[in-house]
């Protein structure tokens, strides 16, 4: 798969199940648990956080 199609797939996953997208990207780190809490508090904060994590460029 090309890099563009992977990114589109991750964006769709961010919208459907935000914690899963964060888990795939970062593993079981603190950012995953933050996303779980945000997702429980409200779907939209979880989606925004997941998009931020997935689209952020790693150093």
TrEMBL record:
<keyword id="KW-1133">Transmembrane helix</keyword>
<dbReference type="Pfam" id="PF01679">
    <property type="entry name" value="Pmp3"/>
</dbReference>
<keyword id="KW-0472">Membrane</keyword>
<protein>
    <submittedName>
        <fullName>Uncharacterized protein</fullName>
    </submittedName>
</protein>
<dbReference type="GO" id="GO:0016020">
    <property type="term" value="C:membrane"/>
</dbReference>
<keyword id="KW-0812">Transmembrane</keyword>
<feature type="transmembrane region" description="Helical">
    <location>
        <begin position="7"/>
        <end position="24"/>
    </location>
</feature>
<comment type="similarity">
    <text>Belongs to the UPF0057 (PMP3) family.</text>
</comment>
<dbReference type="InterPro" id="IPR000612">
    <property type="entry name" value="PMP3"/>
</dbReference>
<feature type="transmembrane region" description="Helical">
    <location>
        <begin position="30"/>
        <end position="55"/>
    </location>
</feature>
């Amino acid at each position: 798969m090309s890099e563009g199609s992977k990114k589109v797939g991750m964006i769709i996953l961010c919208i459907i199940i935000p914690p899963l997208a964060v888990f795939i990207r970062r593993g079981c780190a603190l950012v995953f648990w933050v996303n779980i809490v945000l997702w429980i508090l409200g779907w939209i904060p979880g989606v925004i956080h997941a998009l931020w994590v997935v689209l952020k460029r790693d150093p």
